[in-house]
Amino acid sequence: MTAGLAYPALHASHGGIWVCGADGTARAVGKGEAVGLVAETPHILLNAPLMGQRLGYPDLSGLDLLELFAFIHPARFMVPTPDGLARALSLDPPESEAGVAGFYRVAATRLLEQLERSDWGEREGAWSSAQALYRLRWPWAGVVGQKLEKPAQGERWLFSKLAEWEEEPPRPAPKTATVNPDDTVTMLRHLTGEGAEDRQGQKDYALAAAGIFNPRKAKGAPNMLLAEAGTGIGKTLGYLAPASLWSHQAGGAVWISTFTKALQRQLDRETHKIYPDEATFRKKVVVRKGRENYLCLLNLEDALQGGFAGRAAILAHLVARWAAYSKDGDMIGGDLPGWLTTLFRRNGTTALTDRRGECVYAGCPHYRKCFIEKAARASQQADIVIANHALVMVNAARGREQHNRPTRLIFDEGHHLFDAADSMFAARLSGQEAIEIRRWVIGPESKTRGRRRGLAARLADTASYDEEGGRAIESAIHAAEALPGDGWLQRIAEGEPRGPIEALLHEVRAMVYARDESQSADAGYGLETELTDIEGPMIDAVAQAAEAMDALLKPLVRLGQRIEHLIEEGPDWMDAPARARMEGALSSLSWRCDTLSGWLSLLARIGGPADPDFVDWLMIDRYEGREFDVGICRHWLDPTIPVTEVVTKPAHGVLVTSATLKGGGGWETARARSGAVHLDHDPQQFEVASPFNYAEQAKVIIVTDVKRGDMAGLAGAYAQLIEASGGGTLGLFTAIRRLRTVYARIADRMAESGLPIYAQHVDPIDTGTLVDIFRDDPRASLLGTDALRDGVDGPGQSLRLVVMESVPWPRPDILHRARRLAGGGTAYDDRIIRARLAQAFGRIIRSKDDHGHFVILSPAFPSRLFTAFPEGTPIERMPLEQALAEIRSHREKSDASGLSPATSFGHDDPV
Ligand code: SF4
Asked: Considering the entire predicted model, what is its pTM?
């Protein structure tokens, strides 16, 4: 079977290292020998960065099966493990770790055989791509080239292959319509399926949700419903029933905004039930994300034509293969495998998206095929738009797509609204942000990568037609020279700033180092100090920086006015594409002007009285002791104020819903965190408890004898708990340092027990893929930061134990201190912790057949937080030994009843 494949293979894990020679003989080797072998001959392996880490040889390279898979099956889902690969290729998985290296050779052969099959569905484009990859010395190019036959006719180049979007007339405003309760119930029954059990809670929920579609009583006063629906109610179908009825009757779109990828995928599945016909579904349901998520074809073309070199160029070619088969061109969370970019150490990924607003719109040769434009246009005609909180807010705040403004909005995972608004409406005058504006105005300083061009090139026609506009561009370019340039971070650290903004950042940095008292739990991470008691040199630096910013803002505002004038005037040369380009330029211009105005008002406040609506501070961003940004931050004390103004009030109907909307507290939490308190009328409130029997299905255990600060004890507890549960454990940490220490102490022991363990911030794998791997193997465990509590959705028994290393106290940073003071001190902290506990607990029981334990390794866990858990959940304090015995006995019972982790897990539900 492996005849002809002359390469050996290598597999490394915490359990050992094995090689399998070209003759098919496998043996265990030591690290030193393995490193010598791979340095001599390229080996077949799976995930070179991960293998390199296991070997202690970070530069490991070879014939990576993941790269070959991405070439042969672009846009296809695969869990990047030996078992995942076996399933994707319909092969038997290796029976033991010792057999994995041999399996890699078999898998390589199977993949390469595909190249010769007549039914290979992803053949088009492969030959041309292989030629380019050969020139780039891609390790697989030689063998791939031998197997691939040259096509009889020239292949269509990616850019001619992609379909174009069609221009459609704007959609009329929705008609006034009311959703009838009987119709809602009938629709719900249709969506849940004939024969499904009649769930009163879900029915009540759907009827309550229908209320947001009633005609609005007054402008600025949307029908607003806050709805907490316990896990298992089926709230997705509950709101989809009235939403689909309204959109059908009124001819308008309902926007459903989510926070996690898992829910977006669930919605994608559930909405199929409304439109079972695939062609109708594609028209009626559209997934929208921020433009920075999508591949920019112009950037890709540039990368393919020499803009990228070395490994980044190989990635560009694999991305081009994917783009030709992708459903929607979404690079982050779409059908581009999350693991692909990490194989290339993220080299070049960001340069392939349109992160910096440099899109030239109709001036782009790929405009009619552009993934971003396609998604935006499709959503104008769709009935259901699945978006995310950030996109909904950014569109509203920046006045984008005014004609396509959501009027009926459902915020699912509504407990995240506050945090999403907090990031969206914050201002940050920092070196990284400022250099982006400089590049946007002037163009990049170095010419090494990309087609990025400045304003003058993008608006050449404006400049040549309109003298005043041309002068404004020149002045802006001149003024932007005052912004930080390449090497700014080093210059300010060395005390040699260039220009007034770098001089200000130099002062900021010095002040932060002088005053920081954060005693960050994770040494080596962010530093900060309050923006108060500012003196001499800083005041001077602020004045000069403000002058420089003002000098840039003025010509940009003038340029915006000139473009507006041109659009109104509509000269002969301005055809539809040119007009679209002008409108695009105007939108990104006003975004930059808003940013600069925000910075100016931030600077104006320095040395003056504080604005009670905002919290301002100085910061240095660091990761593992390395600085990467310095600046001044401003956040809203209550970020739901701007959300209410720009998103909620202009809408006609808004539903904010979640399983934990009240965060284990009362309705006042839900009203405050959703912004409903800022409306002039009271929102409707609805609540329905989970149908699960928590008294039988779950238990909270507070371990009383693992002492705080005892790292050996903490690591030992994690190891024993994972063993007792037979894996299937999600370990949550509040500090990265402790996560790493625990992982380092237990990884080998876990390997000996045959229980795979993965960790965020340790394994060179993106978080989404880590979660995929965890979900895919019921014996696997995953350690992550506390933030992972919402991103893991493990069906069945893949997640049966959550272990929290301590009470998830909020980080006592400046922003938190200010909100705590305004929000009632301890009561404010308790609300946050309860919400976090409720979310983490909610991971365990996802269906009526799930069982699980929630363990907190913190003897001092306060009883007042018990209300975070659903009513009826047993909560007990006990020593570790007792907890282990209980978890072990539970596992033995479920094994005996046939609900063993390995047998009850459904493999057919990828991601
Ligand atoms: S239209 Fe803009 S985003 Fe789309 S491919 Fe062209 S430059 Fe990129």
From this structure: 0.88
DSSP 295-306: BPHHHHHHIIII
| pLDDT classification of 400: cutoffs 50, 70, 90 | low
Sheet of 875-878, strands arranged across: 757-759, 781-785, 729-733, 801-804, 852-856, 698-703, 875-878
The DSSP result for 25-58, as a single string, is -EEEE-HHHHHHHHHHS--EES-HHHHHHHHT-T
Query: Which numbered atom of ligand 1 lies nearest the CA of 584?
Result: 2
How far, in Å, from the CA of 363 to the mean position of ligand 1? 9
pLDDT single digits (tens) 773-799:
998 999 999 999 877 777 676 656 678
Instruction: From the CA of 354, give the closest atom in ligand 1.
Output: 3
Distance CA 398, CA 106 (A): 53
**CA distance linking residue 296 with residue 306, whole number of Å:** 16
Pairwise CA distance, residues 192 & 197, whole Å: 9
Residue among 630, 629, 769 at smallest CA distance from 346: 769
Query: What is the whole-number distance in angstroms between the Cα of residue 298 and the centre of ligand 1?
Result: 6
Per-residue b or e along 309-327, where b marks 16 or more CB atoms closer than 10 Å to that residue's CB = eebbbbbbbbbbbbbbbbe
- The protein residue whose alpha carbon is closest to atom 8 in ligand 1 is 296
Alpha helix ranges (H) inside 354-466 = 371-381, 389-397, 417-424, 431-442, 455-458, 460-465
Helix residue ranges, H only, 570-679: 576-605, 640-643, 667-674
How many Å lie between the centroid of ligand 1 and the Cα of residue 842? Answer: 41
End-to-end Cα separation, the chain, in angstroms = 32
Burial class (CB in 10 A: 0-12, 13-18, 19+), 189: middle
Q: Which residues pair with 457 in a beta bridge?
A: none
**Spacing, Cα 360 to ligand 1 middle (Å):** 6
Rg, Å, the chain Cα set? 28
Q: Ligand 1: distance of its center to the CA of 293 in Å?
A: 12
3-state secondary structure at position 137: coil
- To which residue do tokens 């490991």 refer? 60
**Distance of alpha carbon 253 from alpha carbon 380, whole angstroms:** 8
* CB-CB contact of 106 with 118 (8 Å): no
- Residue 365 CA: nearest ligand 1 atom is 6
What residue ranges line ligand 1, CB within 6 angstroms? Answer: 296-298, 354, 359-361, 364, 366-367, 370, 372-373
621 φ, ψ (degrees, to nearest 5): -85, 130
Which residue among 358, 364, 371 is best mutated to probe the pocket of ligand 1, counting the most ligand atoms within 8 A of its Cβ? Answer: 364
Q: Pocket of ligand 1, candidates 294, 295, 372, 377: which has the most ligand atoms within 8 Å of its Cβ, to mutate?
A: 372
Q: Which of 162, 289, 370 most suits a substitution to test ligand 1, by most atoms within 8 Å of the C-beta? A: 370
Least confident of 2-6, 76-80, 490-494, 523-527: 2-6
Token pair belonging to 331: 């690079």
Facing residues of 699 across strands?
Answer: 853
Question: What SS3 state is found at 647?
Answer: helix
Which atom of ligand 1 is least distant from the CA of 371?
4
Residue nearest to atom 4 of ligand 1 (CA): 370
The pLDDT score that the predictor gives to residue 152 is 84
Cα of 357 from ligand 1 centre, angstroms: 10
Q: Assess whether pLDDT exceeds 90 at residue 688.
A: yes
Q: Which residues pair with 854 in a beta bridge?
A: 700, 802
The pick from 361, 371, 451, 587 for probing ligand 1's pocket by mutation, whose C-beta has the most ligand atoms within 8 angstroms, reads 361
Checking DSSP bridges between strand 626-636 and strand 614-623, what pairing results, if any? antiparallel
CB–CB of 592/440 below 8 Å?
yes
Pick the atom of ligand 1 nearest to 294's CA.
3
